[in-house]
Amino acid sequence: MKLDELEKELGSKLIMNDNVIDHYSKSPYLVSPILSKMGKRVLGVVIVEDRYDVEFVVKFCDIHRIPLLARGAGTSTIGQVLPIHPSIVFDIQKLNKTMEYDEKYLKISPGVKVLDALNYLRKRGKELQVYPSSFYISTLGGYIAGGDVGIGSYQYGYHFHNAELDM
Ligand SMILES: Cc1cc2nc3c(=O)[nH]c(=O)nc-3n(C[C@H](O)[C@H](O)[C@H](O)COP(=O)(O)OP(=O)(O)OC[C@H]3O[C@@H](n4cnc5c(N)ncnc54)[C@H](O)[C@@H]3O)c2cc1C
Q1: Which domains does the chain have, with CATH numbers?
Q2: Domain named FAD-binding PCMH-type: which ranges (predicted)?
Q3: 5: number of Cβ within 10 Å
Q4: Which of 36, 47, 120, 147 could form a disulfide with 143 if both were Cys (CB 3.0 to 4.6 A apart)?
């Protein structure tokens, strides 16, 4: 598989050493022994730092028909970050620079930890109505893309029901 073009564009943001490949080829919190056996070795890991990195990786994988796997903190328990094909992984944890709240909307980068978002909101007298019990390790982007219930669910249901900011 030719990853030269990716390497030329992204430099050290593309990592292909064995330790890193090993780490991203696993789903550390996956509970299913059956799914665990389906994991494949990833081809490379891109630590994206801005939207241009994301755009480039998405286009590259589309053109070359390479499976692409987004990864936050990798805390999914149901196999969402397990590569079932040899894939490129892009890690979003460095996309964590933006947290803005303007009384109506919260704008937040996907790599921000749920805990940091909660602390940010609580300082402003606000709250996430539903958030995962893995809030201290997982990212908000990973939760929105992959999670659904958690602390607050008995009262407010699923994250995507009406559980937005407590206004
Ligand atoms: C102890 C523990 C408690 C947990 N409690 C809960 C709980 O209460 N409720 C709950 O719903 N889950 C829970 N989980 C599961 C998991 O932690 C959550 O779903 C979590 O919020 C996922 O965040 P993450 O950053 O680890 O995402 P990851 O596991 O890295 O990714 C989750 C999914 O989102 C996708 N993804 C990640 N980032 C992006 C992005 N920027 N764009 C598009 N797709 C993206 C990934 O490809 C994957 O499919 C728990 C897990 C553990 C280990």
Answers
A1: 4-91 (3.30.43.10), 99-156 (no CATH)
A2: 38-167
A3: 12
A4: 147
